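To assess whether ligand presence alters the predicted conformation, the chain was also submitted together with pyridoxal-5'-phosphate. Input:
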Amino acid sequence: MHEKLSFGYLDQLSSKHGDSFYLIDTSRFKNNYFELINAFRKHYPKTLIGYSYKTNYTPYLCSLIDQFGGLAEVVSDMEYDLALKVGVEPSKIIVNGPYKTLGNLKKYFSKGSLVNLDSYNDFELLKQLVESADYQCRVGLRCNFQITDRYISRFGFDVEDESFKGVLDFLRSCERISFEGIHSHFPDRAIQYYNPRARQMLQIAKRIFDTPPKFIDIGGGYFGKMPEFLANQFGSVIPSYADYANSVAKEFSTFYSDLPEDKKPTLIIEPGSAIVADTMFFVVKVIDIKKINGCYIATTSGSKFNLGSFSSTVNMPMAVFVDSDNDSTFYESIDIAGYTCIESDYLFKGYRGVIAKGAYIVFSNIGSYSVVFKPPFILPNVPIIDINSSTEGVVIKNKETFDDIFSTFNFLE
Ligand SMILES: Cc1ncc(COP(=O)(O)O)c(C=O)c1O
């Protein structure tokens, strides 16, 4: 799981930071970033990463991405302001997402950020804006096409629709607009969806631009690294970074093989989970062990709401750290429950192994859609500690307080 973890280490951190806390491995984050980008650059050197803020917008991580030379991929004004606050240059911010206001768009364009339009509403707002704009608007289009018949994506412009032509005509003809490229994103993580995604984007680019665009952004959705225990539960082979690069970057390389480097579009990928999921751990303490109607249940200081969205469909990998084997008991099957009053709040069902009251349980691979999704339900959220820091633990996010939760409510005088 992680070489640093032991009962002593966790107990020391717990005495300072409380019964539950997140641990983050920032060196692993760095390694993932460079391993992924290098896998793509091996085939197609002109690749950039736009880190998906929504997946885990911990400012420390966003700053690291900026230091590594990555772009910020944001989908709201809150995330945009965060990128500015961590010092990202506006020209290195990509704005996606289905909800943009006229005021927001004006801010993004006037600062020189790239905005991928998602809808005819975005398009209408852009048309209003350029009437009085004294700056260049850097525009991309989110393209919608089928890569599977299992569902219809609700995002972007249907590239087969008649009215799409009108959007293209306007973008091409307006002096205040630099129409820089196209974007897509699909949530399908399995490898068989990636080559069709790349191929279709290359064909669309060829169809709508006379000369190759500045960028083609094929979005995120890549699996991260994970232990076999988790991989087996996804029911498909988990592709490596190199597998994704083979399906996408190699296709780009072949497609543009005749072009000089400076004429090739930049390939942008927008990983979130792929680089952040295995960098975080969630630590809980066993508060009680009970037996009800023949079933063993360990109640803990954490909740499934701390673990992120994946945990509702699969058991996240876990490891137990007991003080001494003498005080612990082996269970054929024990359910690990949360502190909330929700009946279904289980962090793990059917654990087989040694456990004890006072033990620590560490859940791994929980870095995506966890911290950003945790509601202030029943308790404020726990701190995030850097696992690579001294034994004291450098705090990356403070433990939330009563005031953090209630300062936005008005109390009756
Ligand atoms: C436009 C866009 N890019 C990137 C991502 C990141 O996805 P993931 O964390 O699955 O890689 C998402 C996730 O929904 C997205 O909507």
